[in-house]
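1st attempt posting a full record on here, be nice pls
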Amino acid sequence: MMLKKAYSFLERVTPLNTDCGKLCGNACCKGEGEIWLLPDEEKLFCGVDGFEIKKDLDEYNLICKTSCADNRALRPFGCRIFPYFPLVSEKDGKIHISLMPDPRGSMCPLANGKKRCQPKFERAVRHSVRLLIQDKKYFDYFVSYGDMLKEIADFKQKLQ
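the predicted structure (as tokens):
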């Protein structure tokens, strides 16, 4: 499965060389959140203890009832690439992937620019996204959600 291969690129790399959760007390992973799932990712979490899948129209969210802070292997793709969201675009036949701080991640010192993620983490995120977007459903997902998150970031900027 393509998702598992994308996961594998992120298995041994984290945003920092140390446990980034120590910066904020694991603010992003307290076992009480809800995360968007990629297309077909819900299949990987069906029946997994500590998670509930919520369907909203044709999309799925994962409701966390347990923390994955000590077990990165349990994390869905969105958590594995946090605090980033990939912006995917195509221009002149070339695909471009840039990483934006996820505007939903204001609790994270890495998302708000106070500290930078290590470059090898950023490369692994881009690599995993580049693999996934070979499938049109993932390409469309990243373009669509990226556009929406850019709008949220622009709105948040106007409020400041």
